[in-house]
Amino acid sequence: MINGAELALTEGADPVNALALVEKSLAPAAAPNIGMWLTELAHITAKRNEDADSATLTMAAYIKRLVAYPGDVVRQTLQEWSGKWFPTWGELKEILDARSAGRFAVRDALNGMIPKNAHKLPAAYEKMDAEMKAQWLRKEAEWARRSDPERAADLNEQADRIEIEARNQSIGA
């Protein structure tokens, strides 16, 4: 069931292949692209006064959160923003969650049809740095929590391991 509707595949359809297609639609945009869209939005909206360091931190915080959403949804949301003020994270999150919910619901339903050992990561995952991988895994865990709590716990454990490994590498560097 997805938002009150039933998901059914045609006979002979492979849920793993269907999931791969859905995963492609969930791929995040590259951080530099998100930064460009945020910068454009900052130039056409009113914003609070902040120094350059604060503005840089704000952009980094937004990018860190936006990579957890499908890239096309992020682009559309940022490019269609028509408010007078630069959006708060809460405003963006509400829109992004609503626009992405259907894709995540289909993904979760397909995950429920696939044996546990058949889950694969999207191709974009390998191109992410450790911080983005951990962020992506935590977002996946958040969505999986409803349909597959065991998988959600596994994803959070993977994210923890990645963060610990990255922290240890930065200490050793």
Alpha carbon gyration radius: 18 Å
The overall number of domains is 1
Give a short account of the largest sheet.
none
Number of strands: 0
Instruction: List unreliable stretches of 5+ residues.
Output: none
- What is the mean predicted local confidence, pLDDT? 85
Rough shape? globular
Q: Structural class of the secondary elements? A: mainly alpha
Gap from first CA to last CA: 48 Å
The helix/strand order is HHHHHHH
Total count of helical runs of at least 4 residues:
7
Fraction of residues in helix? 55-70%
Kindly estimate the percentage of residues that lie in beta strands according to DSSP.
under 5%
Write the layout of secondary structure elements.
Blueprint: H1 15-25, H2 31-44, H3 52-66, H4 71-80, H5 89-113, H6 130-147, H7 149-172
Helix pairs in contact: 1-5, 2-3, 2-4, 4-5, 6-7
If you had to describe this structure to a student in words, what would you say it looks like?
The chain is mainly α. It has one domain. Helices cover 68% and strands 0% of the residues. It has 7 helices and no strands. The longest helix has 25 residues, at 89-113.
